[in-house]
């Protein structure tokens, strides 16, 4: 059974959200909720192609304190702290769009919610490709569902949060990030089929094998709502159309198209799905070290076929591998953000030093490096 007790760090962040709520409204909130960011172990840009993914939740959380209200009030501790009050959900922009959009998506999906006061506090790195926006959406979703008495299946909830991101915020992401935030379990990586959202929690005990997973936030901003992400998705849809299949999940392994760019996009999706299936099989056998080559192959494909890497990500991956990492790759949508490196625990410091030194030598931002653990998915904290 998964551990359903509140994550201690999530509780700490939620208490900060509660303090912000009290400062803004001079009253106690009705409850506290939190949802994590995520790292995708492998399976990149496969989610919107009905493919396979393997994320795990990070111990960084978006936490909200909330109560029912007569009008919408969104408060954030970002920057100097801001409060937006509005009578309706139309046209909300900036950070508050993720909160307003989630409420809008719940209403649009047949789970009506009324106005609420919501205070947000998060330590999920913004722009690091670790799903800071999905964490916000999922925390707000479970809070509003609780406040207004809706019991929503978590897989359906992921689709609703994705709707907020796609149709309200305007970022054409797949369902990976929201599913990871809502469905991942402590100590496990989640193998998920993005076509039907069926999933399997696979044990992921790095310490038992003397291993560690480094997350390398390159400090190069990662943005989903730009034209490049949308262009990759459009390429995949066009490739599937030309093949006459529902999505690239169904592409024949050795299919060829006349357009070289579309072929490259298709090749990445087909081979990445294969890498996810192989990774899942290795992890089920309890041999985590065996996935290293698959992680590195994923990065090569994302760099060369999908063309979503960056100089910062390539520097981090190359330096980690050069310092002895068992495998490394960019994670997330790309164009900046974060990389991961599977390392022997005893060599984590050496790999971190090499990554930072390589960035300095190339005149790149100093990366933030930390050891990841598979944390708890979205939950009510108090």
UniProtKB/TrEMBL annotation:
Domain of life (superkingdom): Bacteria
Boundaries of every Galactokinase N-terminal domain copy: 20-68
GHMP kinase N-terminal domain segment(s): 98-183
Domain GHMP kinase C-terminal: 283-357
Database matches in SUPFAM superfamilies: GHMP Kinase, C-terminal domain, Ribosomal protein S5 domain 2-like
UniProt keyword annotations, A-Z: ATP-binding, Carbohydrate metabolism, Galactose metabolism, Kinase, Nucleotide-binding, Transferase
The protein's Enzyme Commission number: 2.7.1.6
Family indicated by similarity: Belongs to the GHMP kinase family. GalK subfamily.
Protein name: Galactokinase
Organism listed in the record: Glycomyces endophyticus
